[in-house]
Amino acid sequence: MQLSMYICLFYVIVTIGQTNVITGQGEDRSRQDLEARVIALENALSTLKTELDAKVASLKCDCSSVGSGLGTLTHQTGKRLLVPATPNKEKPAFYSFLSSDELASTKHHTIPFDVVKTNVGNNYHPNSGTFIAPSAGTYAFDWMIQSTWTGVVYTQLMRNSEVLGEVVADSSHEYEFHSATGVVVVQLSEGDEVFIRTHPTDASTGHIISRPGYRSSFSGWRI
Questions:
Q1: What total of structural domains would you count in the chain?
Q2: Quick check: is 87 in a domain?
Q3: Is residue 56 assigned to a domain?
């Protein structure tokens, strides 16, 4: 605002001075008026320069305060201030199956689906047959169990010690393979463990079949 006012003032002074000279209204008087106006303009410009210098000094102080604040924060946390990396957008997912037939008669036995075809995020652990949730959210799981001739297999989907679902593959009265599939959608907390086990009290018989064309499998993904 003030800068614009001073520019306008300069324009008016110069214009008036030029007009006086051109119209010839007394050479001495015109010179005196012009000198007075030039002095007034110099004073105005000096005042403007003083104000601008003060504003520049104020801005430098503000910048110093910001730098000091960042330094204090860095000292308190003991860490460098870094821009967070772009998070991985891929959601955890896995698909696994048994590499061979598994004895089903052991109660309360976690089934280790040891062949892993998909394991986004590496949250499924084939050695233990356990999926560990990397973060809280909604997940879907399914498992398919094949029972041998005249056998019956009771299985449960577990979250830690909680039963989320159960299926029975029953070939006890048939000379053929039977299968059973379960699907569960559940809210998990970070660190929850999900796995398939044989029933703790109902006794299974025979084997869980897993061969080319008859794969017993376990899979899951975050929705």
A1: 2
A2: no
A3: yes
Distance CA 191, CA 213 (A): 34
103 shares a domain with 8? no
Range of the domain at 215: 93-222
Residue 136's φ and ψ, nearest 5 degrees, are -70, 145
Provide CB contacts within 8 A for 220, sequence distance 6+. 93, 94, 124, 131, 139, 140, 141, 142, 194
Q: Which two tokens stand for residue 213?
A: 């064309």
What's the rounded Cα separation, in Å, for the pair 186 and 91? 15
Mean pLDDT for each 10-residue chunk of the chain (223 residues)?
51 49 56 70 71 72 52 46 51 97 90 97 97 98 93 96 96 85 98 97 92 95 97
Contact 20, 28 (CB under 8 A): no
| Residue at 84 is within a domain | no
E-strand stretches of 28-121: 93-97, 102-103, 115-120
- For residue 183, tell me if it sits in a domain: yes
Output the CA–CA distances (angstroms, integers) from residue 171 to 101, 107, 205, in the order listed. 15, 18, 10
Half-sphere exposure of 7 (CA within 13 A, CB side): 4
**What was the pLDDT predicted at 2?**
52
Same-domain status, 111 and 214 = yes
Full-prediction pTM beyond 0.90?
A: no
CATH code of the domain containing 104? 2.60.120.40
What pLDDT was estimated at residue 54? Answer: 76
